[in-house]
Amino acid sequence: MPSFDVVSELNNVDVKHAVDNANRELSTRFDFRGVEASFEFKDDNVIMTAEGDFQLQQLQDMLRNSCAKRNVDTRAMQVKDIQRSGKMHKQTIEFKQGIDQELAKRLVKLIKDKKLKVQTSIQGDKLRVTGKKRDDLQAVMAMLKAEDLPQPLQFNNFRD
Predict the structure, then answer these.
(1) What are 84-96's pLDDT values in tens digits?
(2) What is the pTM of this model?
(3) What domains are there in the chain, each with its CATH number?
Protein backbone atom coordinates (compact mmCIF):
# COMPACT_ATOMS: atom_id res chain seq x y z
CA MET A 1 0.00 0.00 0.00
CA PRO A 2 1.56 3.37 -1.02
CA SER A 3 2.36 5.78 1.77
CA PHE A 4 4.40 8.86 2.60
CA ASP A 5 5.31 10.94 5.65
CA VAL A 6 4.57 14.62 6.17
CA VAL A 7 7.37 16.19 8.21
CA SER A 8 8.67 19.63 9.09
CA GLU A 9 12.45 19.67 9.13
CA LEU A 10 15.13 22.29 8.59
CA ASN A 11 18.68 21.88 7.47
CA ASN A 12 20.67 23.22 10.44
CA VAL A 13 23.72 23.73 8.25
CA ASP A 14 21.80 26.19 6.08
CA VAL A 15 20.54 28.00 9.19
CA LYS A 16 24.10 28.24 10.52
CA HIS A 17 25.30 29.62 7.17
CA ALA A 18 22.45 32.16 7.19
CA VAL A 19 23.55 33.30 10.68
CA ASP A 20 27.16 33.59 9.48
CA ASN A 21 26.05 35.64 6.48
CA ALA A 22 23.97 37.90 8.73
CA ASN A 23 27.00 38.41 11.03
CA ARG A 24 29.10 39.32 7.99
CA GLU A 25 26.46 41.80 6.83
CA LEU A 26 26.28 43.22 10.36
CA SER A 27 30.00 44.00 10.32
CA THR A 28 29.64 46.02 7.10
CA ARG A 29 26.50 48.00 7.98
CA PHE A 30 27.12 51.69 8.62
CA ASP A 31 24.22 52.07 11.08
CA PHE A 32 25.78 49.41 13.34
CA ARG A 33 29.26 51.03 13.59
CA GLY A 34 30.33 51.28 17.22
CA VAL A 35 27.26 49.33 18.40
CA GLU A 36 27.46 46.06 20.28
CA ALA A 37 25.30 43.71 18.23
CA SER A 38 25.67 40.07 17.27
CA PHE A 39 24.05 36.83 16.16
CA GLU A 40 24.82 33.51 17.81
CA PHE A 41 23.66 30.07 16.64
CA LYS A 42 23.28 27.75 19.63
CA ASP A 43 21.19 24.57 20.14
CA ASP A 44 19.05 25.08 17.01
CA ASN A 45 18.25 28.63 18.20
CA VAL A 46 19.58 32.02 17.14
CA ILE A 47 20.33 34.50 19.91
CA MET A 48 20.39 38.12 18.80
CA THR A 49 22.05 40.71 21.04
CA ALA A 50 21.84 44.49 20.59
CA GLU A 51 21.62 47.73 22.53
CA GLY A 52 18.00 48.58 21.71
CA ASP A 53 14.63 47.27 20.55
CA PHE A 54 14.86 49.00 17.17
CA GLN A 55 18.25 47.42 16.52
CA LEU A 56 16.85 43.99 17.42
CA GLN A 57 14.11 44.53 14.83
CA GLN A 58 16.76 45.39 12.23
CA LEU A 59 18.76 42.29 13.19
CA GLN A 60 15.63 40.17 12.79
CA ASP A 61 15.09 41.59 9.29
CA MET A 62 18.72 40.87 8.39
CA LEU A 63 18.33 37.27 9.59
CA ARG A 64 15.10 36.82 7.61
CA ASN A 65 16.83 38.08 4.45
CA SER A 66 19.81 35.79 5.00
CA CYS A 67 17.51 32.81 5.58
CA ALA A 68 15.58 33.60 2.40
CA LYS A 69 18.82 33.70 0.42
CA ARG A 70 19.78 30.26 1.80
CA ASN A 71 16.29 28.82 1.00
CA VAL A 72 15.40 28.40 4.68
CA ASP A 73 11.66 28.91 5.08
CA THR A 74 11.12 31.81 7.47
CA ARG A 75 7.74 30.45 8.60
CA ALA A 76 9.73 28.09 10.84
CA MET A 77 11.06 31.05 12.82
CA GLN A 78 9.40 31.59 16.18
CA VAL A 79 10.40 34.87 17.81
CA LYS A 80 10.56 34.84 21.61
CA ASP A 81 10.21 37.81 23.99
CA ILE A 82 12.98 40.35 24.49
CA GLN A 83 15.12 39.92 27.60
CA ARG A 84 16.63 43.13 28.94
CA SER A 85 19.68 43.24 31.20
CA GLY A 86 21.44 46.54 31.71
CA LYS A 87 21.93 48.25 28.38
CA MET A 88 21.88 44.99 26.38
CA HIS A 89 18.78 43.40 24.90
CA LYS A 90 18.63 39.73 23.89
CA GLN A 91 16.06 37.99 21.78
CA THR A 92 15.91 34.32 20.92
CA ILE A 93 14.59 33.00 17.64
CA GLU A 94 13.65 29.36 17.73
CA PHE A 95 13.40 27.32 14.55
CA LYS A 96 10.43 24.95 14.83
CA GLN A 97 11.05 21.40 13.71
CA GLY A 98 8.56 18.57 13.79
CA ILE A 99 4.80 18.74 13.65
CA ASP A 100 3.14 19.39 17.01
CA GLN A 101 -0.15 17.70 17.98
CA GLU A 102 -2.32 20.73 17.26
CA LEU A 103 -1.00 21.16 13.70
CA ALA A 104 -1.16 17.39 13.09
CA LYS A 105 -4.84 17.32 14.07
CA ARG A 106 -5.49 20.30 11.81
CA LEU A 107 -3.79 18.51 8.89
CA VAL A 108 -5.79 15.33 9.51
CA LYS A 109 -9.00 17.38 9.49
CA LEU A 110 -8.00 19.10 6.22
CA ILE A 111 -7.30 15.75 4.59
CA LYS A 112 -10.57 14.21 5.81
CA ASP A 113 -12.58 17.23 4.62
CA LYS A 114 -11.36 16.58 1.04
CA LYS A 115 -13.00 13.12 1.18
CA LEU A 116 -10.03 11.39 -0.44
CA LYS A 117 -9.62 7.65 0.08
CA VAL A 118 -6.57 7.86 2.32
CA GLN A 119 -5.85 7.11 5.95
CA THR A 120 -3.79 9.38 8.17
CA SER A 121 -2.05 8.59 11.41
CA ILE A 122 -0.05 10.80 13.74
CA GLN A 123 3.31 9.22 14.57
CA GLY A 124 5.19 11.41 17.01
CA ASP A 125 6.29 14.56 15.22
CA LYS A 126 5.26 13.40 11.74
CA LEU A 127 2.10 12.40 9.93
CA ARG A 128 1.81 9.17 7.91
CA VAL A 129 -0.61 9.14 4.97
CA THR A 130 -1.51 5.82 3.29
CA GLY A 131 -3.85 5.03 0.44
CA LYS A 132 -4.55 2.48 -2.26
CA LYS A 133 -3.76 4.75 -5.19
CA ARG A 134 -0.71 6.88 -5.81
CA ASP A 135 -2.94 9.56 -7.36
CA ASP A 136 -4.81 10.03 -4.07
CA LEU A 137 -1.51 10.54 -2.26
CA GLN A 138 -0.36 13.07 -4.85
CA ALA A 139 -3.67 14.91 -4.46
CA VAL A 140 -3.04 15.12 -0.69
CA MET A 141 0.46 16.49 -1.33
CA ALA A 142 -0.86 19.13 -3.74
CA MET A 143 -3.61 20.12 -1.31
CA LEU A 144 -1.16 20.50 1.60
CA LYS A 145 1.23 22.56 -0.53
CA ALA A 146 -1.62 24.91 -1.48
CA GLU A 147 -2.70 25.46 2.15
CA ASP A 148 -1.40 28.47 4.09
CA LEU A 149 0.14 26.73 7.10
CA PRO A 150 2.16 28.32 9.93
CA GLN A 151 5.10 25.99 9.32
CA PRO A 152 6.83 24.57 6.21
CA LEU A 153 6.08 20.95 5.34
CA GLN A 154 8.14 18.38 3.46
CA PHE A 155 7.11 14.99 2.13
CA ASN A 156 9.47 12.06 2.45
CA ASN A 157 9.59 8.29 2.77
CA PHE A 158 7.31 7.78 -0.24
CA ARG A 159 6.69 4.03 -0.67
CA ASP A 160 4.85 2.14 -3.34
Answers:
(1) 988 899 999 998 8
(2) 0.82
(3) 3-8+98-159 (3.30.70.860), 12-95 (3.30.70.990)
